[in-house]
Every structure is written in C-alpha cells, then in structure tokens.
Amino acid sequence: MNSVTQVTQSHQHKNFGSGPVQKSPFKRLSSKVWEIFKEQDPPHKIALGLALGIFVGLLPIMGIQMAVVSMFALPLRGNLKAALAGVWISNPVTFIPLYWANYLFGTLFFPDRKVGWHEFVGEMAAASQWDWTAVKSSLLSLVNIGADVLIPLWAGSAILAVVFGILTYFLTFRWVVFYRKKRSLPHH
Known about the structure:
The chain has helices at residues 3-14, 25-38, 43-57, 65-76, 80-86, 95-107, 117-127, 135-143, 147-183. It is mainly alpha-helical. The protein has one domain (54-188). Helix 3 (43-57) packs antiparallel against helix 4 (65-76) and helix 3 runs parallel beside helix 5. It is elongated and about 55 Å long.
C-alpha cells in the first residue's frame, strides 16, 4: 500500500459515519460577530461602526439601509463590517414589531395620530411591497403610508435611533476593550 492510500484510508476511518458538520444559522452569525471584535481596527472604529448600523437600522428606511450606513461609516471612519451588521437589527422578520415599537414611542409626542396594530401592519405590509428596481416607486409608497403613521413612526424611530446608537457605541467600545484584554489582542 502506498502512502497516499494509507493517508486516504486513515482519513476515511476518522470520519466514518460522520458527514460534514453543519453550523446552525445562529452559530454562523455568532461567529461572524466575533470576527468583527477580532479585527485590528481600534475599538473606537468598531464601536462607531456598530453604533451607526444600529442608528440606521432603527430608521424606517428598510431596503436602503446598507447604502445609507455605508455613506455614514466610510467618511466617519467607522468599521464598515460592524456598521453593516448593525443594520440587520431590522430585517424582514423583525421590522414590523420594531417599527411598531418605534411608532408607539412616537405617539407619545403625537397622541392624536395613533392608529391600531392591524392598520399599522397593513400600512407597513403595503409599503414593504417595494419595486426593488425603482427607488422612486419605493419612496412614493412610503409617502402614501400617511401622516398618522409616518409622523409618529419617524419621530419615535429618530429618537430611539439616537439613544440606542449612543448606548451601542459605549457598550461596544467597552466590550471590545474587555475582549481584547482578555484575549491579549492589541487594542490600539
């Protein structure tokens, strides 16, 4: 038996009965987040990137969030990977409950513009049926939602985006510094 055959048989014996190990979507996402903390960027850049991502992710601009956060992160020198990860706080699964919470918060400032859950969900569902090839159509569908939903939604979203963006910056900065000290990675 030649050495190639021995190595092949030895390898096959070790893997007998076990196929390729598949990571769950949560584990894959978790490993991607940890990769961001391991980057060589200073903690400020990573924290700024994630904070910008959370800020933009909380705004009711689903569909253009990645472009918008890139326009902020690049000139402000935030970590682009962290910024892009942050916008995923709102995604096709979470955007309606998230926007509903932002809307309810906004109605604290505009109580006369309050609509019910079913009407809100109907308006959001209609607005999310965007024609991805035509930005003009997308923007018009947002305008058509109506002032009773749009004004409190934007007010609540803007305020919460600022608050959670700032909190995200400070928590992420501290976490990256802590993580790097623990792992003995340079933290510039």
